[in-house]
Design goal:
heterodimer; A: DNA polymerase, domain 1; Uridine Diphospho-n-acetylenolpyruvylglucosamine Reductase, domain 3; 5-stranded mixed beta sheet; B: alpha+beta; Aldehyde Oxidoreductase, domain 3; globular
Chain lengths: 494, 827
């Protein structure tokens, strides 16, 4: 049994979307096909939030769900087909009759809209906040709004709106749109594979890994559509959608998170938001770092595996995975019978060139695992950006030391810490993110000022950055060295 | 006259109320129902337009073949330069082809437009067009342009006193060069237009333009139509900031040409990438200056040469340069001054208006010079500012206009106290001393700068506006003006002015979409003058209507109500009431008339009051054949700036303000954090306090982006590569300072302007210069402490990107790598 449509609920109304419309970007479809032009498209690359809508999670599940839970996402860089099984609420779905929703009313009361073009996006981002927080403190508010750009207000009145708005039971999106029948309907549909096609482009969503690898082996060049935060951008910028696509959103096992004594394994459908939550315990520094990474709209849909597969030299999570024993789990079809063959590739062997992975044809990444941060390890993840939040790094660094001797003793007349082993990786300094074994070796031994200085210079000299829109090669060298100096001094001086 | 006798504004009159009515579109904004151009539903047969533009900064079009595109199903038509009826336009000089034919002068210059039924067909069509280019040598820096004498317009000079001898005799002299980068407007709504061909060769153009009149004219000329055949409508814009003043017009022409060729509706909605690549930016500037001053820091002479990068065509660059020259004094009286300006022609997109319009360049220069002077004479920069500030004895600008209504000294004094400037300065000195000893990697800086922004177009004839006011018989009003609503709230302000004049609730006044059929020969909504000019015109229209209604009300009071026209006009049994032309909107000296609370009252000499509902009075007027509509006209009085000798009254008044910014620099990375901002502005008597505060805080943050994170980067072909928000970083919510105080002083002295208000659109942007001077203060503090002996003046280009800041803080760290990487593998 197979479906030829994506099932979505749009502002509470059931829609089966097929063919051309299913392969359109959601924002474009909302505006031009569904007649809902309140959702705006500005950058078409997920960087401005003007297209923000709310989406219910769509995890295929055996357990009955009684209440949906909604999160913000950018509708400009995902196809309608990827919304399969979810409920979408747009700005048009926020009012209760003639009554403005709390976010709408707060934005109006605080004079937080001027030209109005970013306003629906802010309303939706703020509404997502109200789904989780009855009221917000300054940190929470700005975290929820960090993915939305405004050019008129300077944000002050928007922040005021976010700080003064209060959630109400009547306007809860989860409450209003959790209709039992539609939930049942959606859950039932996730048991059936989906195939949507239009003019030679096909998107397949299997319900099992076995079906998935069978498809990728007969359709060479198939691209896995995760959150499409990268493919979606390319399509919006004029490249055609790849002709063979697979979405793994109907495969339950890929939503798993497995914690062990030594580490953690995430399925390829686990979002960055979820990875961040789990990492708070497993790798606290990684969790902290993910706060600076992307907007809530992106983190709610994008996956860690997506970040890995995209293979950008400045992918923010990659230096961490390189120093944290990261391994990708891949699957492919073995033989014509469709046996699933699995293997693991260490992160350090994954990247073989600019945006090139050491995957064999037909292989798809199913999981990523990495180690717990050890009790004697000191880890620091940092990035250098032009703008503090939601900016692509010029340089990012990941440092981890296993120490003997007390950290922070160097300046206080006690024994200096001794580095037993070191792991150092950088992004933005070469065609791929890099581990730096020779630097790691040079760092072992007693940690002192002279060693920090010599290692910093070694780093600056051994990386091979380029000059581009985010900074000159020299700047990257100096900043890369300074990031290490800072880390070294923190370890030394506490 | 100057306000020499004014007492300073007491603190207690500071406005604190937030009871202003919200923006008139606030409900439709938050519900997503506000309609922008590209939200208009597609009509059957409507075409999507796409542009073919140059990938080179300067090239010959060797071959251009659109035929392959036309073979693709769904592609309907194509137009090129030879299809344009009058292929030349320009707001000041007509020097720019609408569609380039033989030669292109910048990356993004359009050579062909195609129209297609679907976006898919459009993409295929664009890819199928064949163009062969012959690359030509290009000019991509101001220095190259100066060497090649590639200029737009002639050099302008404004001078006063004897600069050369004052410089020669000054106890101290500094000289320097300031590099100022451009900035993208980054209005959220990219340029968009929909053109509907109507019957008998007429065109209805819905454009995101700040200048509907110019768009109407450019469309008509491009299509070979008469102006009367084209109506241009601008309902609302999703931001503009100057970027849609001149540059919306050719965009509209592209769609109009496709509509004309195909006879179908045509739509062109640029992607953000195309918008950023094609359209011009804030003009980059390069300023060389020499300044002489005494041991206390009093400026004795300033000689400055400003070069701007105008891009490939004139656009508005010469007017922008003029305003830059007129703002080189800013808040400071300089007895001997010569400022010269020359626009350079380069191979970039034609640079254009952007909030501040050149003013920020002059102000950045003088505020930066003052920071330098302070370091050399060993005083706090604020003391040097106070010493040089315009005052009652020194109030003549270098262009000869007297600084009337000067609130600058009291604004400085007030903010100094409110933001605890002196105390915080001490704290920062102590903090930085600790920092340079290695205990802290964060360096801090503080700076308090001013703005004195001249309000009026410096081109006199632009200072005019007109408005149409229609009253309806249910007591409501519709108002149409030439003002374009782009978020600034001009519609709300005009509605407030009209409602107050008519004594109606705000809800009874609607501002209608701006359209050239109702308001022709209008000026762009620009130069912060939208409310000043159009609000005054609307007020004039209201006063004419009110005069007639006042005359009618005075006469009605002596006629029994049962004989009024509403009861009798159908029968014609009563004579018509004739308007007494001598009655004004407030009645006569005997009969005082008031429009208040939806009523009109007539008070006679005995004190007896006659009251009639305005709606009823309007109905009586209609039945007496008295017009309840009017067309108002306004021209700004007493302007007299002579562009040839650079002297005269350029501005009706000055909007003034001060701001203090505190920043923190990460000495490892050069990243900047703005810790605290305090703003105090004089906006006279605001029409809408909340909207003005929105302009103040929004303008400040927008300027902060230009000065810090917004970096325009071009590749070796002259193509902008930071053309989307992933690479071009405007401030986001986390960049708004944690402490961000803004306030207004209240004063009634700006009587020459509408309702005693002052324009608020551009001036606050210039206050963000305090962020940049604070960064420079921090950099120089760090350097001063690390190098023994004399203070160092560290130049800091705009924008002060993290890289530039880090280079300023630790130039020595870059030396080896700069050498290696430029000699090396082409990094």
């Amino acid at each position: 049994m197979m479906r030829d449509f994506a099932l979505i609920h749009l502002n509470g109304v059931r829609r089966e979307i097929r063919g051309r419309e299913a392969l359109m970007m959601l924002a474009e479809w909302l505006r031009k096909e569904a007649g809902l032009s309140g959702t705006k498209i500005v950058c078409a690359e997920g960087d401005c939030g003007a297209c923000t809508v709310l989406r219910s999670s769509c995890q295929p599940s055996a357990q009955p769900i009684s209440q949906l839970s909604f999160e913000a996402m950018n509708s400009c860089i995902a196809t309608v087909a990827q919304m399969d099984g979810t409920h979408i609420v747009t700005v048009e779905g926020m009012q209760c009759g003639d009554h403005l929703s709390p976010a709408q009313e707060a934005m109006r009361r605080c004079h937080a809209s001027q030209c109005g073009y970013c306003t629906p996006g802010f309303v939706m981002a703020m509404s997502a906040m109200l789904e989780r927080h009855d009221q917000a403190d300054a940190r929470t508010a700005s975290n929820y709004l960090t993915g939305n750009l405004c050019r008129c207000t300077g944000y002050a009145p928007i922040i005021e709106a976010a700080l003064t708005v209060r959630a109400t039971e009547t306007h809860s999106v989860a409450r209003r749109y959790s209709d039992p029948q539609s939930i049942k309907d959606s859950v039932a549909s996730t048991k059936l594979s989906m195939l949507v096609e239009y003019e030679g482009t096909k998107l397949f969503a299997p319900v099992s890994l076995r079906e998935a690898v069978t498809f990728t082996s007969i359709n060479p060049g198939t691209r896995v559509l995760g959150a499409a935060t990268d493919i979606g951008v390319h399509v919006n910028k004029g490249k055609p959608l790849p002709t063979s696509l697979i979405s793994l959103h109907l495969i339950p096992e890929l939503y798993e998170t497995k914690l062990t004594r030594s580490g953690v394994t995430f399925g390829s459908r686990v979002t960055l938001a979820e990875v961040r939550r789990v990492s708070e315990d497993v790798a606290p520094e990684f969790a902290r770092f993910l706060n600076l990474f992307a907007s809530p709209q992106i983190k709610n849909v994008a996956t860690l595996v997506g970040n890995i597969a995209n293979a950008s030299p400045i992918g923010d999570t990659l230096p961490f995975l390189l120093i944290a024993g990261g391994e990708v789990h891949v699957a492919s079809r073995q033989g014509a019978k469709g046996v699933v063959r699995k293997r693991k590739i260490p992160m350090t062997d994954l990247y073989v060139g600019y945006k090139k992975l050491s995957l064999e044809p037909g292989e798809i990444i199913t999981h990523i695992s990495f180690d717990r941060t050890g009790a004697n390890d000191v880890m620091s993840l940092c990035k250098v950006t032009q703008r503090k939040d939601l900016d692509i790094s010029a340089v990012s660094g990941a440092f981890s030391l296993t120490l003997k001797g007390r950290r922070g003793a160097g300046g206080k007349g006690k024994a200096a810490p001794n580095v037993v082993s070191a792991r150092i990786a950088y992004g933005g300094v070469a065609a791929t993110p890099v581990r730096m074994p020779e630097v790691e070796l040079a760092l072992c031994g007693e940690l002192n000022q002279a060693r920090i200085e010599s290692v910093a210079l070694l780093i600056a000299g051994s990386i091979k950055p380029i000059s581009d829109v985010r900074g000159s090669a020299s700047y990257r060298r100096v900043a890369a060295a300074n990031l290490f100096r800072r880390f070294g001094n923190e370890v030394l001086h506490g | 006259m100057a306000d020499q006798t004014r007492t300073p504004v007491p603190m207690s009159t500071l406005i604190s109320d937030h009871g202003s009515p919200p923006h008139d579109s606030s409900i439709t904004h938050v519900t997503g129902k506000s309609e922008y151009v590209d939200d208009r539903p597609m009509l059957k047969g409507e075409l999507h337009c796409g542009l073919v533009y140059s990938p080179y900064a300067h090239a010959r079009v060797v071959r251009l073949d659109t035929a392959p595109a036309l073979k693709i199903p769904g592609v309907i038509c194509a137009v090129t330069g030879k299809d344009v009826a009058h292929n030349m336009w320009g707001s000041i000089f007509q020097d720019q082809p609408i569609i380039a034919a033989d030669e292109v002068h910048y990356v993004g210059e359009v050579v062909a437009v195609i129209g297609a039924e679907t976006k898919e067909a459009l993409a295929k069509g664009l890819a199928a067009i064949v163009v062969e280019w012959g690359k030509l040598p290009d000019i991509r820096t101001i220095s190259q342009a100066i060497t090649a004498k590639s200029f737009i317009g002639s050099m302008r000079t404004i001078s006063t006193g004897d600069v050369q001898s004052a410089l020669a005799s000054a106890p101290h002299q500094i000289s320097g060069t300031l590099e100022i980068g451009g900035a993208d407007h980054f209005y959220l709504e990219s340029q968009a237009v929909v053109v509907y061909p109507k019957e008998d060769g007429q065109f209805e153009v819905h454009s995101s333009t700040q200048h509907p009149t110019e768009t109407q004219h450019v469309v008509a000329e491009a299509c070979g139509l008469r102006y009367s055949d084209v109506v241009c409508i601008a309902k609302r814009l999703g931001g503009a900031f100057g970027g849609k003043e001149s540059q919306a017009s050719p965009i509209a022409a592209y769609a109009a040409l496709i509509a004309k060729r195909s006879g179908r509706p045509a739509r062109l909605a640029l992607s953000k990438d195309d918008d950023m690549i094609i359209t011009g930016k804030r003009n980059p500037f390069q300023i060389e200056y020499r300044c002489g001053f005494d041991g206390k820091g009093k400026i004795l002479a300033l000689d400055a040469m400003l070069h701007s990068d105008g891009g490939a065509y004139a656009d508005l660059s010469t007017a922008i340069m003029e305003r830059a020259l007129l703002h080189c004094d800013n808040a400071y009286s300089i007895a001997n001054m010569r400022v010269r300006g020359q626009v350079c022609r380069t191979n970039f997109h034609p640079h254009t208006a952007f909030r501040g319009f050149g003013g920020p360049k002059g102000v950045a220069m003088i505020e930066s010079i003052i920071e330098d002077i302070a370091r050399i004479v060993g005083r706090d920069a604020l003391d040097v500012r106070l010493l040089n500030c315009y005052n009652q004895n020194q109030d003549i600008t270098h262009y000869g206009q007297r600084v009337e209504g000067n609130h600058l000294p009291s604004l400085f004094a007030s903010l100094e106290k409110r933001c605890e400037y002196r105390k915080r300065r001490e704290g920062i000195i102590a903090w930085n001393a600790d920092c340079t000893s290695g205990n802290n990697r964060f360096v801090r800086g503080l700076s308090l700068t001013a703005v004195k922004f001249g309000i009026s177009f410096t081109t006199r004839f632009l200072n005019q506006g007109n408005a149409l006011v229609n009253l309806h018989r249910d007591g409501t009003a519709q108002v149409s003006t030439g003002a374009v609503e782009m978020g600034q709230g001009v519609n709300s302000r005009i509605a407030t002015i009209v409602a107050q004049q008519l004594g109606l609730p705000l809800a009874c006044v609607r501002i209608m979409p701006t359209s050239t059929e109702k308001n022709a020969n209008t000026s762009p909504t620009a130069a912060s003058t939208g409310t000043d000019i159009n609000g005054a015109a609307a007020l004039n229209a209201c006063e004419s209507i009110c005069s007639r209604l006042a005359s009618l009300a005075i006469q009605l009071r002596s006629i029994p109500a049962e004989l009024w026209a509403s009861k009798t006009a159908g029968l014609g049994t009563m004579p018509e009431i004739i308007v007494d032309e001598t009655v004004g909107p407030s009645g006569t000296s005997e009969h005082r008339v008031k429009f208040v609370g939806s009523n009109v009252t007539v008070t006679d000499p005995s004190g007896a009051v006659f009251t009639i509902a305005l709606a009823q009075l309007i109905r009586e007027a209609y039945r007496n054949r008295i017009s309840v509509s009017d067309y108002g006209y306004y021209s700004t009085p007493n302007l007299g700036f002579n562009k040839v000798d650079g002297k005269g009254k350029a501005f009706l008044y000055f909007t003034q303000g001060v701001a203090a910014s505190e920043v923190e620099l990460d000495s490892d990375t050069g990243e900047v954090k703005v810790r605290r901002v305090d703003i105090l502005m004089d906006l006279g008597r605001p029409v809408n306090h909340a909207l003005d505060m929105g302009q103040v805080m929004g303008g400040f943050i927008q300027g902060m982006g230009w000065l810090t994170t917004e970096n325009l980067v071009y590749d070796n072909n002259g193509k902008l590569i930071s053309h989307s928000p992933s690479t071009y970083k405007i401030p986001n919510v986390q960049d708004t300072p944690r402490v961000f105080n803004a306030d207004l002083i209240f004063n009634e002295d700006n009587t020459q302007n509408i309702r005693g208000s002052k324009a608020s659109g551009e001036p606050p942007l210039l206050l963000s210069i305090s962020v940049w001077t604070a960064i420079r203060d921090a950099v120089m503090s760090a350097r001063k402490n690390s190098v023994a002996g004399e203070s160092q003046l560290v130049p800091l280009a705009i924008p002060a990107t993290a890289e530039r800041v880090l280079r300023g803080l630790s130039p020595e760290a870059f030396v080896i790598w700069d050498k290696q990487d430029t000699n090396g593998s082409g990094a």
